[in-house]
Amino acid sequence: DNKDPRVEAYAVRALDGLDCGSLAIRIANIDAASVPQLDMDEHYELQIGSERIWLEANSTWGALHGITTLRQLTSAQGIPSGLHIVDRPRFAWRGCMLDVTRHFIPLAQLYQVVDGLQLLKLNVLHLHLSDDQGFRFRSEAFPELASMECYSKIELERLVTYAGDLGIRIIPELD
Q1: Is 158 left (phi over 0), alpha (psi -120 to 50) or beta?
Q2: Which residue of 10, 27, 75, 121 has the fewest C-beta atoms within 10 A of its own C-beta?
Q3: What spatial distance separates the first Cα and last Cα of the chain, rounded to whole Å?
Q4: Residues 6-53: tens digit of each pLDDT
Q5: How far is residue 19's CA from residue 50's CA, in Å, rounded to a whole number?
Q6: Which helix (H) or strand (E) holds 68?
């Protein structure tokens, strides 16, 4: 009855063109305004039957991981009927840190990194945005601090929203 637009959009994008059959997704607690948090519930259960696949999760974040697992199974040699997976991450903080201060990474590549983190079921992207080698964030209060290659506030806001819709928190580091 309830729909989560983030889960629907990710399912379409992740499973497009893959032959996985009929998929039913049930999310117990949908909060469209929620954002990824350290203590978010990422548990999901995936049951593969002969005619339908059921994905149950307590939250959006678990449903996203369940879709990723289904994508991984589909891209293998085929989905075995009767498979039942109950999964939850062992650690609450799973991610990577990029030092864009010393080596600037274009925004398009950061989006690719976020997509890769989702495929690996990681949930944190730590961005090191400033140091003595560069200042990659254009401050409204001190715009002269910014390096020639930097991200605007709007670009970073869009990246945070995109990552958040995939269950990934962006942790900025400003020295």
Answers
A1: alpha
A2: 75
A3: 46
A4: 999 999 999 998 888 899 999 998 887 889 999 999 999 999 998 899
A5: 13
A6: helix 60-74
